[in-house]
Amino acid sequence: MLFNSYEFIFIFLPITFFIYFYLNSKRLTEVAKGFLVFSSLFFYSYWEIKYLPIILASMLFNYVIGTTLSKYDIKKNKKTFSKKSILIFGIICNVALLGYFKYADFFIENFNLFAGSDIELLHLLLPLAISFFTFQQIAYLVDSYRKETKEYDFLNYALFVTFFPQLIAGPIVHHKEMMPQFANIKNKIKNYKNIALGIFIFSMGLFKKVIIADTFAVWANTGFDVAQTLNFFEAWATSLSYTFQLYFDFSGYTDMAIGIALLFNIKLPINFNSPYKALDIQDFWRRWHITLSRFLRDYIYIPLGGNRKGPTRTYVNLLATFVIGGFWHGAGWTFIFWGFLHGVALAVHRLWQTIGFKLPKMIAWIITFNFVNIAWVFFRAKEWDDAIKVLSSMFSLDNIILPEKWERKVGFLNEWGVEFSRVYENISGKDNTTWFIFSSILIVLFLKNSNQYKTLFKAQFHLWIFTIIIFIYSIFSFSKTSDFLYFNF
After folding, report:
1. What mean pLDDT is predicted for residues 289-300?
2. 300 near 233, Cβ under 8 Å?
3. Which residue in 466, 275, 464, 252 sits closest to 368, CA to CA?
4. How many CB atoms lie within 10 A of CB 254?
5. Which residues pair with 104 in a beta bridge?
6. Annotated catalytic, 342?
7. Is residue 433 helix, strand or coil?
């Protein structure tokens, strides 16, 4: 069930909302939580019922391990397994589950390639959201090991894992961030200010996904997957289309998740803070997919040693962290290379800071944005050849095509190999493609992001008019909706 669907917006969400608060109003708190868990599991299994046993088994396993870690007594358990060994066992089992479904075919395929064998691929269907709920539960185990969380109630733990707004694609939350909110008595009563703000944020996210991201999706998908060749402007339009599609798609999902959670008086952490305004790559990762960046820092980079063991080790740790982050996104060498590029960029940035060089803000932004845009090409490409096709045309001046209507004024450019025809023909683009790209650049650079609007929000008449307009416009555009990109990861 998609957030951007009629059945979710007009059936599932209203029914879940009203029954949850009705049960709370009758002081049936545990029943209300149980209903929310049931609704979340229904939401999850709506795509494919066979996903359900996997998440249930994962929850039960991690609840047992987490509870064992929380209650661990050194004196009582000195003759059994150590606390650290229990944690390692729990992490290995989680990684093994993720690895089996997500990476088994990748490893078999590469083993066949290097060993010359012919082992048959498993062709496993990737369980929905397995990357997100696995990372979230690994964080829970580590927090339990550190005595930073205590959860002895399986119903509460199930709610922590399955709460449907953030279940499928995050934000990745800590137990201590969300569960105290469910325990707060004030949050069991409808809060009309939160409802108004939630609808406002949800509508913004819906508009970003349905109107902006899905428009870019046509050009990005055609450029990467369909077009055999691309001219100079088509290649740049393809890469920029995916750059903006990914941002508006995923930040749109996050806005909708935050907005829906607010209806239930739950505040989820922000996940995006205008990342394309970043002036360096470190700043970008402080703004992009913030909860994943936090996870990579706290549970991979710092345990590896962080920056505590000298410059060389710091660079190695950065590189390792982002290669792992790239591999987490997908079972492919293009994802690993994307992570490698960002790891190298962060190492270079750290070295740059050590030397003490600073660039003018405009130049710093141009370098950062273009690096991110070029790196996204590898992230999006299904095969190396797709990435090379786009990148080679982006940096070739032998295939420039300008609009036919310009030929009268600048026809002399024919002598320089410039042709005049339909500029975006190979990516199904139109005359508005250029306008759409430049408008998006202006939006990400000069408009406030949804989190800033959230802090400034007041239930004023003009905001309600704005909300109604973008909500209705998005609703009538559902005929061209697509899945959220991060469902694939």
Report:
1. 94
2. no
3. 275
4. 29
5. none
6. no
7. helix
